[in-house]
Amino acid sequence: MIDRRPWLDVLSHAVMILGVAIVAFPIYLALIASTHTAQEIVQAPMPLWPGTNMLESYKEALFGSGKLGSNTDLIRMMWVSFVTAMVITVGKIAISLLSAFAIVYFRFPFKQLCFWLIFVTLMLPVEVRILPTYKVVADLGLLNSYAGLTLPLIASATATFLFRQFFLTVPDELVEAARIDGAGPMRFFKDVLVPLSKTSIAALFVIQFIYGWNQYLWPLLMTTSEDMYPVVIGIKRMVAGGGEAAIDWNVAMATTIIAMLPPALVVILMQKWFVKGLVDTEK
After folding, report:
1. CB within 8 A of 66, min separation 6: which ones?
2. What is the pLDDT of residues 185-204, one digit of tens each?
3. What confidence score (pLDDT) does residue 283 get?
4. Who wins on pLDDT, 210 or 72?
5. Percent of the chain topping pLDDT 70
6. What's the pLDDT band for 69 if we cut at 50, 70, 90?
7. Can you tell me the mean pLDDT for 196-213?
8. d(Cα 199, Cα 277) in Å, to the nearest integer?
């Protein structure tokens, strides 16, 4: 039953607007700060309206030298973050699809044991196994490389579990029809299962891209040269040390806004698929 009393509409909209304002206010502050000079920002109270220094702040953030706490520019760091996020995202989805396919549609010894071993790794995130993982990566000579940045993060038990549950709901009639048509296992996987999973793949793509873009702890250990720093480490180095007076907060906030653009763009472009993948299944 839908209650259409007007005061409930006003209340629900007020709560929604309040929630949006609370979530968006820090982003608004960062955007406003990026339009002022460093001296104007540290004054009390901080300006809450746009200033006139926007172009200079963003130009300094993009092309200024030494403002990110290193000799590497923001564009290079954005590229490292983008490559890392894309490899992690595509790798997680591909490995999870194949592992779920094997668990659901193939018969082999200890199949259930393999599934539960994958599932147990949910309790062992990178932060827990970071030291042995670092030792293995260092012994393989992968420090300070894209392979070292991405390979330890490229498997996902959550995604495997999600695809397994979805594959279990696929009707057996589709499998039988594929057999009658002479389709082998990989053709059935490519032509039937992957297209049916596109909404789940889209939802996972958004989640995993943001996960890969925001990585901080693992790249902090892995990277030994500044040209392999992702943008998150660049922002941290930019605001670390030197005292409040030594930090160009307008440039730091401009860098933060620029760093937010790729994940925000992914969410906006894939919003429809993302919501559908979380709340719906398509067969």
Report:
1. none
2. 889 999 989 999 888 899 89
3. 47
4. 210
5. 92
6. low
7. 91
8. 4
- φ, ψ of residue 69 to 5 degrees: the values are 75, 15
Quote the pTM value.
0.85
Contact present, 63 and 73 (Cβ < 8 Å): yes
Cα separation, 147 vs 221, whole angstroms:
14
Alpha helices in 106-248 (DSSP H): 111-120, 130-139, 146-150, 157-168, 172-180, 185-188, 194-196, 198-213, 217-222, 231-239
Question: Are 142 and 151 spatial neighbours (Cβ–Cβ below 8 Å)?
Answer: yes
User: And the tokens for 61?
Assistant: 């953030």
Task: List Cβ neighbours of 33 (8 Å cut-off, separation of 6 or more).
Answer: 41, 46, 249, 250, 253
Q: Report long-range pairs for 241-250 (Cβ below 8 Å, ≥24 apart).
A: 244/42, 245/42, 247/38, 248/38, 248/60, 248/67, 249/33, 249/38, 249/41, 249/42, 250/33, 250/34, 250/35, 250/36, 250/37, 250/38, 250/41, 250/53, 250/57, 250/60
Q: Helix crossing, 198-213 with 74-105: angle to 10°?
A: 140
For residue 67, give the amino acid letter: K
The reported pLDDT for the residue numbered 44 is: 79
Residue 82 CA to residue 269 CA, distance in Å, equals: 16
DSSP 3-state assignment of 173?
helix
**Helix 271-279 and helix 198-213, axial crossing angle in degrees, nearest 10:** 110
pLDDT in tens, 119-176: 888 777 777 788 888 999 999 988 889 999 999 888 888 889 889 988 998 888 888 8
Please check whether residue 84 is in contact with residue 219, taking contact to mean a CB–CB distance below 8 angstroms: yes
Q: Per the structure block, which two tokens stand in for 117?
A: 């071993």
